[in-house]
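Sequence only, no structure available. Ideas?
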Amino acid sequence: MAEGKSSLVRVLPVVVFAVVAGFFAMALRSGDPSRLPSTLVGKSVPQTDFPALAGLESDGKPAPGFNSADLAKGKVSVVNYFASWCQPCVDEHPFLEALKEQSGVDLYGVNYKDQPDAARRFIGRFGNPYSAVGTDASGRAAIDWGVYGTPETFIVNGRGEVVYKHVGPISDDSLKTKLLPIIEKAKAGAGS
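Reply:
I predicted one. Tokens follow.
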């Protein structure tokens, strides 16, 4: 009897580990990052101040940073977390340009844990779709916003409430089927 119990004690941890690893593997393969939960949806944006990206200019003047109050001025807006070292951010950048052009909303960029010169080169190379570019050098604001990683995009209604969070890079499909319709719905809600 002791020998049977001893074998069970040795095998049980291996079996438990295999089952848990299997669940993790299935979750990783079938996971759609845009389905990650966000506790911010339906709530006001966190009280944050995003200082301007040092040295970035727009129309010959220093480009502004922004704060949470700028997102509650009666107009739908989009906040996009990005970084120069983030390849998916490079991939999504043309879709940010399209989003701004097709939606007519202000885009606010948050440069995440990046060096100012690298961020300026990124914007210089790929274009600046942002009305303002703030920085989150320490990543503290990202914690408040519930950011999993870059890129992430938030649609904010005119009252400063998050109505949608998109995790991962924006694609042509997500632009057309998710972001633009949600922005239009938020605009319609702002008018009522």
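The longest helix spans residues 2-30.
Hope that gets you unstuck.
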